[in-house]
Structures are given as C-alpha cells and as structure tokens.
Amino acid sequence: MSQPPNLPPPPPLPRGRDRKSSDSGYKITVTILFVVLGLPPGLCSLYFTPAAIELWRDGTPQAIAYAVMFAFPCLVGFIMFAGLLFWLIRTWRRASP
Question: Percentage helix, strand, coil, to 5, in the chain?
C-alpha cells in the first residue's frame, strides 16, 4: 500500500495590519463625509465663537441679539463636527472581522 502524500500546512491566519479590510470602502465613505460635512461647520464654529462672545460682552441689546444669532449656528456646527469626528474615530479604530 502506498502512503498518502504529505500536504503542506495551511497558511497562518492574517492578523493586525496583514488582514485585508472588507470595510475599507466604509472607512473611506466616513472620511469623505467628515471632510465634506463635518470639517467646514467645525471650522466656522471655531472662527465665529469668539466673535459671538465679544458681541455678548458688549452688552447692548442689538449686540446680544447678534451674539445669539451667531451662537446657535456655531453650536449646531460644533455638534455636527463632534458627531462626525466621533463616527470617524470609531470607524477607523474598529477591528476588522
């Protein structure tokens, strides 16, 4: 009787950076969304928040009205920026299956 041929051992499973990411398209999509939708409002809120604070310090009713008018869009822009930044970080840190 002849013996069966010796088969080579299977290759090791990929780990860490050697692993092919099946969701690289998802990561790219989230990155593009952050750059297009999150970064501009974040930068605008960073720029206009000091202006709103200075208007608030002025104390006149018209200046306070302008400060409130600046503060709401700045807050919305900051929330958009923070939410998309959190999503971006979470997506890039998630381990691939």
Answer: 75, 0, 25
